[in-house]
Amino acid sequence: MKTLYTLLLAFGLCFTIHAQNNANIVNYQNVGTQVQSQLETLLIGNQNRLLLQAGFSSKQLGDDNQGIKLIQAVGSEAISNKVLQDFAADYTKVKAIVLSDIKTNSQVISALDLTLFSALQYFVVESNETLTTAFVQSLLQNVQIPANVVIVYKKEVLM
After folding, report:
1. How far apart, in whole angstroms, are the C-alpha atoms of residue 155 and residue 102?
2. Cα–Cα distance between 26 and 113 in angstroms, integer?
3. Number of Cα atoms under 13 Å in the Cβ half of residue 112
4. Distance CA 55, CA 47 (A)
């Protein structure tokens, strides 16, 4: 029985170490002013975006000729490979993917492959709750994110 517990502990540590190596999460306040400026331009600017929300059809906002620059998913359950397949032609232009309205009880994102997003620079997790790095890592454990993409956690302050 002791051997079984030892094996389970070692197995769990392997997965924990693997998840930590693949997801370096940076707090929005620590990314630097240049990155903050780029993110604000993408988030607030007049960028073509794809809006995803569970229970609703996806909505593309902006000029169709420019291609999607930002994908915004409201809630962790709103984004999946199946939903993104319809917009595969725009993968090369997407610069940021934003998960907004993430709560401490949000579901772990199902298997999601973002390796085809060649222009992807940022993966942003927005929440009005305080989330730990460990929670964000567990939320993204099934997401394949290219190595050059910066994962940013941004706490939204509601006024």
Report:
1. 10
2. 21
3. 21
4. 24
